[in-house]
Amino acid sequence: MGVLVIVWLERKISAAIQQRIGPEYSGPLGILQALADGTKLLLKEDLLPSRGNIRLFRVGPSIAVISILLSYLIIPFGYHLVLADLSIGFFLWIDISSIVPIGLLMSGYGSNNKYSFSGGLRAAAQSISYEIPLTLCVLAISLRVICWNMNFFLSLF
């Protein structure tokens, strides 16, 4: 609910800065505009490539999103508020986050379009390029502390 209010405020403030009216079509003062936009997004038609591999085109983004959501299983949100408290939490987090470029490559390759493929390749290269320093930093910290459990770091604070 808070996100809807923030989106509504952002739209209203942007409209005031740009000297335009802003969203006021759905509900009083446009309060339900974000809900209408979300409904419109969910009901849109799926565009599938005519010459591409439809299976790769559909599975690629799913793999990327699922791997990002799975990484939240390992992150502790409180001292005992973690969904999967593992002794190798850091390594599992790095492994799960490294699956994202595979999904990006699959979706780019599945479209059978050179521009989509180069975009997927670029996104995968960017993901890999920031994962290597991130992995080295996380490993350096975890080797210094000599513990790979993510809940252990919360006990230090």
UniProtKB/TrEMBL annotation:
Instruction: List the PROSITE patterns.
Output: COMPLEX1_ND1_1
Question: Can you supply a Gene Ontology BP term from the record?
Answer: aerobic respiration
Q: Which keywords belong to this entry?
A: Membrane, NAD, Transmembrane, Transmembrane helix
Where does it reside?
A: Cell membrane; Membrane
| GO cellular component annotations of the record | plasma membrane
Chief subcellular location: membrane
Instruction: Enumerate the GO terms in the molecular function aspect.
Output: NADH dehydrogenase activity
Where is the chain membrane-spanning? 59-82, 88-111, 132-154
The record's listing under PANTHER family reads: NADH DEHYDROGENASE SUBUNIT 1 (PTHR11432), NADH-UBIQUINONE OXIDOREDUCTASE CHAIN 1 (PTHR11432:SF3)
Q: Which family does it belong to?
A: Belongs to the complex I subunit 1 family.
Q: What is the protein name stated in its UniProt record? A: NADH-plastoquinone oxidoreductase subunit 1
What species is this protein from? Platanthera zijinensis
